[in-house]
Amino acid sequence: MKKESLHFSSRILLLTIVTSHSLASTQPRCHEDERSALLEFKTTFFTKKHPCCHVKYTRTPVEQSKVEFWNASEGKTQSDCCSWTGVECDKVSGHVIGLDLSCSCLSGKINSNTSIFRLLRLRSLNLALNDFNCPIPPTVGNLSSLRDLNFSMSNFTGHISHSLRNLTRLVHLDLSFNDLNGTIPTYFGSILNLENLDLVSNSLTGEIPSSLGNLIQLTTLSLGVNQLTGEIPSSIGDLIQLTDIDLQHNRLVGEIPLSFQNLLELRVLYLVSNRLSGEIPSFLGRLTQLVQISLSFNQFHGAIPSTIFQLQGLQALDLTSNKLSGTVKLDMFSEAKNLQELMLSSNKLSLIVETNITQQFRFLCLGSCNLNSFPEFLQDQNDLLVLDLSSNNISGQVPKWFLNVSTENLILLNLSGNFLTSFAQDPVIFKWKKLFEADLGFNELQGSVPIPPPLIEFYFISNNSSQRNIATLMQSKLYLYD
Ligand SMILES: *[C@@H]1O[C@H](CO)[C@@H](O)[C@H](O)[C@H]1NC(C)=O
Ligand SMILES: *[C@@H]1O[C@H](CO)[C@@H](O)[C@H](O)[C@H]1NC(C)=O
Ligand SMILES: *[C@@H]1O[C@H](CO)[C@@H](O)[C@H](O)[C@H]1NC(C)=O
Ligand SMILES: *[C@@H]1O[C@H](CO)[C@@H](O)[C@H](O)[C@H]1NC(C)=O
Ligand SMILES: *[C@@H]1O[C@H](CO)[C@@H](O)[C@H](O)[C@H]1NC(C)=O
Ligand SMILES: *[C@@H]1O[C@H](CO)[C@@H](O)[C@H](O)[C@H]1NC(C)=O
Ligand SMILES: *[C@@H]1O[C@H](CO)[C@@H](O)[C@H](O)[C@H]1NC(C)=O
Ligand SMILES: *[C@@H]1O[C@H](CO)[C@@H](O)[C@H](O)[C@H]1NC(C)=O
Ligand SMILES: *[C@@H]1O[C@H](CO)[C@@H](O)[C@H](O)[C@H]1NC(C)=O
Ligand SMILES: *[C@@H]1O[C@H](CO)[C@@H](O)[C@H](O)[C@H]1NC(C)=O
Ligand SMILES: *[C@@H]1O[C@H](CO)[C@@H](O)[C@H](O)[C@H]1NC(C)=O
Ligand SMILES: *[C@@H]1O[C@H](CO)[C@@H](O)[C@H](O)[C@H]1NC(C)=O
């Protein structure tokens, strides 16, 4: 027995030496069948004229397809496909296990015969940012070892292939920004290792399958910008690892499920632009990891629950354009020291603004919040990019100090729909260096028109009582209502 175990451990030792030796010097060359599958892919696939992959997705412009570096000739290293750009081999077996052809200028239809689907040991396949303009071929289901599948932004069309059912080991599935239609397959709910599911920006219809509630490893669920209908399934609340939910721009109805109170890891709740209703649930205030709550452009009613004001980590709260009512005191948010985006416009809220506001905001949208004057705390706001005080009850003169607010950063200013009569000085030259869009319309402004900075692109000022001097601005980029 003793001898046997000694023998055994020395075998392990030997094995360790052999493996570390092979790692250090002679990595196995790639396998011939896999090399020819890759070369076949290179020759049968045609690549677009350059530049092919939009610069906005890459740091540097992509001038050449990765496959152009794949070299058939019998050079010493060139013929080892494991050394080719975008190809990853298993260090021990030499089998191709990873293929990253993202942003590779590939253009043309792939189908079930396409040779890369013969690389049966692939664990990772990234074809993002190409242009295939065809359905996802069913043979992708043969790659049953896949952990990562990324087909984002590749112009795939049609239904989501039935054969993805076979990919039970998937951890990351990204089919975002394609033209996929049909419903989200119910069988996605049996890919139990999934951590990220990203179907954003397709044309998917039907309801969110409640089977997704089985995916207990899921951390991000991104189904935004589709045409999904029905209610948010209560089962989504079973996904207690979720950190990010993105269901924006769909046609979802009903309330935020009560089961969401279980989502204690949730950081981002993004439900913008649906037809959701009911009250904003007060349990959100107990999801202490929340950083962003975006519920704008829905039909939520009632008061903003006071629990939300206790979320210390909150950075963005966007409730624009709902049917919320009640009184909000801005200093209720004093616990949320990092709150940078507060958007409450277009509700039926009454805002009470104290002077002792400590946060530095970047987005502050307080349109139709029943304000009677310019909130004085704005004097200390230097980081503001967007300031919306439209449709309030602010009357009289625009104070001098207001023209000093965030002069380095402000991009958008909306003062429309108030009762402003004049500026404290005349003529007024706006000092906001980066101002891009200004709306002073629907006030009672008289006197000369404020002179916008050179960068301005949109400047609305019409429908005030007097519009003298407008003519002098006509050469610049002045836009009028009608
Ligand atoms: C292919 O390999 C040969 C021999 O090693 C080399 O001369 C040639 O430049 C390579 N071609 C490309 C496109 O890399
Ligand atoms: C795949 O290859 C087979 C045999 O060469 C051929 O009959 C079939 O039409 C091909 N399928 C597609 C989709 O190109
Ligand atoms: C997707 O395919 C269509 C049809 O060929 C084409 O007009 C369009 O430019 C493609 N889109 C992208 C992003 O490649
Ligand atoms: C690949 O998948 C097709 C069906 O999509 C199947 O007919 C074929 O047998 C599979 N090949 C391998 C090697 O698994
Ligand atoms: C599913 O994967 C197995 C290998 O695990 C393969 O034999 C079979 O053909 C695949 N089925 C489909 C529909 O791709
Ligand atoms: C898929 O690829 C795109 C483009 O490179 C990238 O932005 C995205 O993060 C990738 N998705 C995953 C899940 O890694
Ligand atoms: C789905 O997309 C395919 C391919 O673009 C198209 O032929 C089909 O009509 C679409 N189906 C629906 C219901 O829109
Ligand atoms: C701000 O002032 C109000 C009224 O003066 C006070 O009730 C509140 O506690 C103050 N908030 C902070 C954060 O100091
Ligand atoms: C300013 O706000 C009003 C109403 O609140 C809105 O109609 C208008 O489009 C806004 N202007 C800009 C430039 O966003
Ligand atoms: C609007 O302001 C005027 C004068 O400042 C005031 O008389 C009026 O009550 C205010 N209206 C509302 C709805 O607050
Ligand atoms: C506005 O800022 C300028 C400096 O840029 C300063 O001289 C002036 O006093 C400030 N005005 C007000 C009312 O704060
Ligand atoms: C400007 O205001 C008047 C009076 O309030 C209104 O009749 C007219 O429709 C407004 N013009 C535009 C372009 O909205």
UniProtKB/TrEMBL annotation:
Chief location bin: membrane
Compartment annotation: Membrane
Keywords of this entry: Glycoprotein, Leucine-rich repeat, Membrane, Repeat, Signal, Transmembrane, Transmembrane helix
Signal peptide: 1-24
Domain Leucine-rich repeat-containing N-terminal plant-type: 31-46, 70-90
Statement: the UniProt record of this protein carries the keyword Acyltransferase: no
Membrane topology: Single-pass type I membrane protein
Superkingdom assignment: Eukaryota
Transmembrane among keywords: yes
SMART domains: LRR_TYP (SM00369)
GO cellular component assignments: membrane
SUPFAM superfamilies with a match to the protein in the record: L domain-like (SSF52058)
Pfam families xref list: LRR_1, LRR_8, LRRNT_2
UniProt family annotation: Belongs to the RLP family.
Protein name in the entry: Leucine-rich repeat-containing N-terminal plant-type domain-containing protein
Species in which this protein is naturally found: Eucalyptus grandis (Flooded gum)
